[in-house]
Design goal:
mainly alpha, 136 residues
Length: 136
């Protein structure tokens, strides 16, 4: 995926680029830690809930896509994805209903995409979903 496509899919990435932060999960664990740090740095520097939510959901989408394309079986990577999914649900819950709806749809797609991953990833996400998601 070209960087232009990624930036248009996630406008908050342009904010990261302006601050010199990166967000790339293409080579798994090393880049995964940098992506998580970028979200944390964004939260500290700018802190807009909508931006944190977008970056967290985008992280989950990219991580799930990498899993579907590469079939990775790294427990740390899988655990980090579930943790970020949990954090994304938390931050999305703080948004107004119109913003929340779209992000929940995207997180639901992530949850569905992990069905073939194994390692209890889908089950963990389903449990988090059942505990937190409400109908607007």
């Amino acid at each position: 995926m070209s960087s232009a496509v990624v930036k248009s899919a996630c406008p908050w990435l342009s904010v990261l680029a302006q601050t010199g932060l990166s967000f790339d999960l293409s080579t798994a664990s090393g880049k995964q830690a940098k992506a998580k740090k970028s979200i944390s740095d964004y939260r500290k520097a700018i802190g807009l809930q909508a931006g944190v939510a977008e970056l967290s959901v985008f992280y989950c989408e990219r991580a799930a896509r990498l899993l579907s394309e590469c079939g990775m079986e790294d427990e740390r990577y899988l655990t980090a994805l579930v943790r970020m999914f949990d954090q994304a649900l938390d931050v999305v819950a703080k948004l107004n209903p119109s913003e929340r709806r779209t992000l929940l749809q995207r997180l639901d797609a992530v949850r569905s995409a992990t069905d073939a991953v194994g390692w209890g990833v889908k089950d963990a996400m389903d449990e988090l979903w059942a505990e937190r998601v409400w109908e607007d």
